[in-house]
Amino acid sequence: MDFKEHIRVINDFPKEGISYKDITTLLRNGEVFRASIDALVERIKPWQPEVIVGPEARGFLLGAPLAYALGIGFVPVRKPGKLPGKTVRETYALEYGFDTLAVHADAIAPGTRVVIVDDLLATGGTMLATANLMKKIGADMLGMGFLIELTFLNGREKLTEYPVFSLVQY
Ligand SMILES: O=P(O)(O)OC[C@H]1O[C@H](OP(=O)(O)OP(=O)(O)O)[C@H](O)[C@@H]1O
Ligand SMILES: Nc1ncnc2[nH]cnc12
Predict the structure, then answer these.
(1) What domains appear along the chain, each with residue ranges and CATH number?
(2) What is the pTM of this model?
(3) FRET label pair with 23: which of 34, 59, 61, 101, CA 20 to 30 Å apart?
């Protein structure tokens, strides 16, 4: 399956100079959506994770069905002020701005085998912040998977501690 054919590219969104990779066109096609989850399952199952972690918002769209397919739990990493319990936080830089991420402090028991999934790797700031949150709560980080990687932004250089894969590259 050529996932790129189903990803819409919109130039100058959300700011001039950004070539936005829109996955809504992939998600709305049931066959392609399922194939993308199946492809993630194939890559991630051998790592034998106990929990999938996904950052808000697009990490939920792939992470939750992936966890369901693997028959394991899903832990959301959220933007601040959204989680009701005690949280740990990390601030990070985006391709277009700054943000903070938070996770419930008790979301994952120390030593739990965790894989993080997101739709897209750009500068790597989101994934590094998510990995740092996992470190803070004592998770055993097995690796990270992405649907899309923007290779020219060298996000992988921030993530050299971990195995990283992506299904399509720009
Ligand atoms: O590698 P980075 O430079 O950190 O960029 C990648 C992140 O940017 C996008 O999320 P965004 O923050 O736009 O939020 P959204 O998922 O709520 O749309 C994307 O879904 C990744 O999470
Ligand atoms: N170019 C891009 N397209 C879609 N989502 C993004 N997140 C960060 N950079 C992005």
Answers:
(1) 48-169 (3.40.50.2020)
(2) 0.97
(3) 101
